[in-house]
Fold this protein.
Amino acid sequence: MSLTKKGNVSLDEFRRAVLDTVSQEELLATRFARLSASGDRRGMVETLVEMPCVVGLKPSDSYEGKSEARAAWLYEKSLGATSTEPRDDAEQEIRTCNILTQALFAASANGRVFLDAISERARRFYSRRVYASCLRDCECMLALPVSFYDGSAENVRDYVQRRKECLQLERECSRKLEASTSSRKRGARGRTSSSSSSSSSSRSFSSNTLPTVNGKPHSSLTSCSDGVELRFDEARGRHLVATRDIKPGAVLIVDRPFSFSTDAPAFGRNCLHCHATLKLEDSVKIPCRDCQTVVFCTEACRKEAWKTYHRYECPIFNYFVENLLNNERQQQTSYLLLAYRTTVVQALVRNIAETTCDLNLDFLRYHADSNAKDNKDDINKERASLGSRETYSPLDYRTVFHLETHCADVEPNMNLIRTAEAIFLAKCLIWVLGKMDIVCTRETLILLAVAMLHHLQAINCNAYEIVENVHDEATHVWDPRNVGAAIYSTVSLVNHSCYPNVVRHSYPNGIVVVRALRFIGKGCEILDCYGPHFLSENKLNRREILWKKYRFLCGCVACKQNWKFPLSDAITSYKCTACTEPIDFSTNVTNQQCIKCKKLVDLKRIEKHFRKSIQKRLSAIAKMYRGDYRDAMPLLFEHADFVNKHLVEPNIEGIKTEQCIVQCYNSLGSISV
């Protein structure tokens, strides 16, 4: 297969060419397998870079650029937008705004059509009283410098005229939004929570503030509450444990992503930078100034994304989105983009004005000997000090670098695939940097590929989904939908359980919040579920899935005791509140003595209180159906506390309560329609 023709080689084609070459050369395959088993990333990269199919790889522009002709046609279409079908005025305005949005994505930001389309869409938003969207369009237009245009008298006159119109609209929208806010505050004083409908509640949740950790912030783990601490042992590695009793709902971690990516299906419905949904009433789509593929919710997001990562991926973006045939491939593409961005944000140093950049030599040196045996002790010492003697920050690259990779443990063929992908991504980055007059040597290629490979391996074990929750009006259920992926170095410290005691939820800007799902006693480990849950898979399947992906044999309580689902609706066993020993409920004896601590237990009284406690869960569900999720949570927490004190795990009542709590939190995070 020839890979020398510019612009015609996809990642799939390159990957197949590498695999075919290695499979046909026994000595090459043997050498690579030996390097893979020793975890020698540099050796694996160097083995492949001299192959003809690698040398011949020449990335080029691969993105959907602007089309002024199409933009002009769409703009003219918007001005004469009519329909033979009967439509009301509001529906026609929405249709016109959608056509103008298409024109904006096709138009170059330094052309007259862009000016005309953005101004027209702002006016349309204003006439529809969607003032927040109008303001965002004004912000986008006002951010365009006059230097974009050729300086002719006509172009300057058009620019000045559009700027005046936008300034006027901006003042009017700000005034009307302030008046609307004051009116809502006055109305809220006389409105009860029971008058809120499910749909109005859904809209209000999109503006909820970010939670903070319960208690004091941790002194070393900057994303954590002081209710947890970092520990290490040979069996569990690094892990988090509770330093005190933790109640259900307590916020234990608020973690920021070191880097993040977006799934291909979300490119048109979510902001590329903050992942805010673009399907709510007051949302707006701001285009990239160079491509037609991605969208932003504000000019601020577009500018920040371009400054930090998008300018380095925009010219080659189609390499990340081509040939997406199924969900597995879509996730793989998101992880490839995540590895690329993780490298970009650390490998490049921007100048003060952030207009130019250069290679970060410290980063390259960091990966030069990262897998050498004589450096292993230094790596382990640094890993151990982070979070104990030194601050553990999610934005510190060292915390990302020390995430588990299982480099030497996975099959050589998998490392071969990832090495080929890493070299492809490194060549793409070098090609983009070449357009910025940054010269890269062969050594630079090798080190960037080593870094890409390190990140691809770490992502496979440590990446988390960024999700938004979509409300089903028929079932009243909030269903999670994937938006992207991210590296959270603090959340990655939490070990897995098939019966987790915490739950994660995504918030804007990729932030993840980790809350206690049920009571966690002092000294108990904080446990997340990043594999199959015992409710959905049997023990054998769970362990097989976890071993293949994470290389550990799960020993959680659900696996050790082989819990099976479905659980019985009948309560077969209460427990002693003094020593937690199970008490047999199958007998007809009203009072029983605990076998272990001899405490007398009044089963009839406990059963009576249990029936009352169940009513709290049912009342909470009724509130949830009305959209009153905040009012439902205290009832659920009270019932969860009763279940924890009196019922032996696992029990169906605890599972039902936890699922209700998860639904409440789904409604409070990032949402869509």
Remarks:
- The first strand starts at residue 228 and ends at 233.
- The chain has 23 helices and 19 strands.
